[in-house]
Design a protein that fits this description.
Blueprint (H helix, E strand, L loop, with lengths): L6 H40 L5 H9 L17 H16 L2 H4 L2 E6 L14 E6 L13 E5 L34 E5 L9 H7 L4 E6 L1 H15 L8 E4 L4 E6 L4 E7 L6 E4 L2 E5 L4 H4 L7 E4 L16 E4 L2 E3 L4 H19 L6 E5 L38 H15 L6 E3 L2 H5 L15 H4 L2 H4 L10 H14 L1
Parallel strand pairs: 5-8, 5-11, 10-12, 11-14, 14-15
Antiparallel strand pairs: 1-2, 3-4, 6-7, 7-8, 9-10, 12-13
Helix pairs in contact: 1-2, 2-3, 6-13, 8-9
């Protein structure tokens, strides 16, 4: 073995070479860190898109550099970081990203947005299932006739069913309206599982807030759940106005309905009802601490005469005998939206808003100009097809207001956009087969038919299947 006669020169030469190597290592480490940071950012935008495989494959299967990453702790090597990225890649490929994807759908705008069925902009924050790793709009589809389809419950399964919804009991002669199921264009809805819902909601509260359509949906859901529970599973029912609740004691789950047709408060002063468009505190006190809130409003804003639920309106300290109803709806909804933004913790509470449920009092909306002797929904036994019906202009106007308000909110609100699919179901109303009608009223369907509410079992079961999907999938 030879030794140098100039050991100090060899030492400096080795130090110089080591210094150059360290500089190269730092440069390579910086470059690798830059690409790793770029990859992390890319994950948020691309890893669950249809192009995720090609993007991540290119970066993840480059060999990791053995140096340590400057922006990680000294004990963390690039090998572990690289392994983490590989795990993320594999998780994305098996669909983990799809089940948790938060999709902001903007319909009607420019860019990649598309026009929805009402031809106006709509903002939706949705947790949706996907088919073939592509976005599925749960609310665009068709009603499929299925002779094998069996309703999820019978009226006898229900702890509560108002007479106005119990069509079969009150003499509806046909039942084919129960043989239709909703099929989204790009996916299939998961089958509703009441026990699964209770287990995943254990210890939590779900509340419907709104008008009698909200009560229609509430009664549907408690029927759907009760039908699959053992008869021995204990429950406790409280019926009152404005709050009614069914408690499933075995699971600690409360499912409630809070009656607030306008959402905002109605003050009563010396017998005079004043719709306060700027105040919601009296109603909203009951909504605090609820884990899932589903709101609806719409029909009552158009009522006049004896059906009108107020005597005066108040806004910004001024009392009005009346005002433009859409303007009033906008003011009231913005009061609701401000309350949600200020008082709802999005990490604890899920908020849904159900779009306006259409009525069927005008046959021209589904007869496509054909001559018809019908005056309303009476006698209708099958849905309208996807091409021969329209949604009433008043509902379109109301939904434009709803969409605009939700778009301006800072809190995520899931819009359950049931208007179009419900507009097809001209056959689903109680008509004259309602326990609220006298024999004389039933003999005069042109004036007495209920074409606003829905039979149970019936359409609200589909609304709840969509809510179940949006909530848990």
């Amino acid at each position: 073995m030879q030794t140098s006669n100039y050991p100090h020169k060899n030492k400096h030469r080795k130090q110089g070479e080591k210094g150059k190597a360290m500089i190269l290592l730092y440069i390579l480490s910086f470059v690798l860190s830059f690409f790793s940071f770029f990859l992390l950012i890319s994950l948020f935008f691309f890893c669950f898109s249809p192009y995720s495989s090609s993007v991540l494959f290119f970066f993840l299967f480059l060999p990791p550099h053995p140096t340590k990453m400057p922006f990680l702790s000294p004990s963390t090597s690039s090998h572990s970081f690289h392994s983490l990225l590989v795990l993320l890649f594999l998780w994305a490929q098996v669909g983990g990203g799809d089940s948790l994807r938060l999709v902001a759908g903007f319909k009607g705008g420019g860019g990649s947005s598309s026009h929805n069925h009402r031809g106006h902009k709509q903002t939706q924050w949705q947790l949706v299932p996907t088919a073939n790793r592509s976005y599925c709009n749960l609310f665009m589809g068709s009603w499929v006739h299925d002779d094998s389809y069996i309703p999820m419950y019978q009226p006898t399964d229900c702890p509560l069913m108002d007479p106005e919804f119990n069509c079969q009991f009150y003499g509806r002669p046909d039942s084919d309206y129960l043989k239709y199921r909703w099929k989204p264009d790009a996916c299939d809805l998961p089958r509703f599982n009441g026990v699964d819902l209770l287990m995943k909601m254990r210890g939590k509260k779900l509340m419907f807030v709104g008008d009698s359509l909200g009560r229609n949906q509430w009664e549907s859901l408690i029927c759907m759940i009760s039908a699959v529970l053992a008869r021995t599973s204990p429950t406790h029912m409280t019926i009152a106005d404005p709050l009614s609740t069914l408690k499933f004691l075995e699971y600690g789950v409360e499912i409630s309905f809070y009656r607030a047709p306008y959402l905002v408060d109605i003050d009563v002063l010396q017998g005079t009802r004043i719709l306060n468009l700027d105040n919601i505190s009296s109603n909203a006190n009951a909504w605090r601490g609820v884990d899932v809130l589903s709101f609806n409003t719409g029909h009552w804003w158009t009522h006049k005469g004896s059906l009108q639920g107020w005597d005066y309106m108040e806004s910004q300290g001024t009392v009005y005998q009346d005002m433009d109803r859409l303007a009033a709806l906008d003011k009231g909804l913005r009061t609701w939206a401000n309350w949600v933004d200020a008082h709802v913790n999005g990490s604890r509470t899920r908020v849904f808003f159900q779009s306006v449920s259409p009525t069927h009092y005008n046959p021209s909306e589904w007869s496509s100009g054909a001559l018809s002797t019908a005056k309303n929904c009476y006698g209708e036994t099958e849905p309208a097809s996807g091409t021969d019906f329209t949604v009433g202009e008043s509902f379109m106007d109301q939904m434009r207001v709803v969409d605009a308000v939700i778009k301006d909110m800072t809190s995520p609100v899931y819009l359950l956009d049931i208007t179009l699919l419900s507009a097809m179901r001209k056959d689903g109303h109680p008509s004259i087969y309602s326990g609220d009608l006298t024999p004389g009223q039933r003999a005069n369907p042109d004036r007495s038919a209920d074409c606003s509410h829905w039979c149970l079992p019936g359409l609200p079961d589909t609304w709840n299947q969509l809510l179940y999907t949006a909530l848990l999938f």
